[in-house]
Amino acid sequence: MKIYIVYSSLRGNTEAAAFILASFLEDLGLSAQLVGADAYDYEALLDADGLAIGSYTYGNHAEIPEELLDLYEDLPDLIQANPKLKQALAVFGSGDRDYPIYAKAVDDFVEIIEKSGGHLLAPGVKIDGYPDYDEEIAGLAAIAQAFLQLAKENN
Ligand SMILES: Cc1cc2nc3c(=O)[nH]c(=O)nc-3n(C[C@H](O)[C@H](O)[C@H](O)COP(=O)(O)O)c2cc1C
Prior knowledge:
6 helices; 5 strands; globular; Flavodoxin/NO_synth; electron transfer activity; Flavodoxin_CS; oxidoreductase activity, acting on NAD(P)H; FMN binding
């Protein structure tokens, strides 16, 4: 099962979450390819079996960072073009609870996936700063478990 984790991280918090997710997947016998937003490749995702998106929240209006906008805009097409990926999507990302709108990029990615007919394997995971709260780690673990479940169903 080819799972891609496409993420962006300015200060390392979302990156840490991406690494944690990748290590959970590995522990379950699944392999994940970590892809920084700058190396995002539409063509590669046409062949993917799963995609986890990691996005921090930025800007004056709790925005998706610019480097992830291509992926955001491509998602409706990708979901239509790759039926495997359509069934195997997940979202996580770091924010800061002190901002008026917390980790909205996670909500935005969840929304575009659902609007495009994509299936989220597990609820979006919002992470306050560095991923160290139990519920955040549990959310990432739930994503990994859901990928494992899917891999079993498809075998
Ligand atoms: C200019 C600026 C704007 C931000 N706006 C938000 C925001 O609206 N909502 C939020 O939850 N976090 C906001 N943050 C906080 C970051 O999302 C937070 O620091 C996060 O941990 C960064 O993740 P990273 O380490 O993966 O880059 C903002 C940070 C900066 C510097």
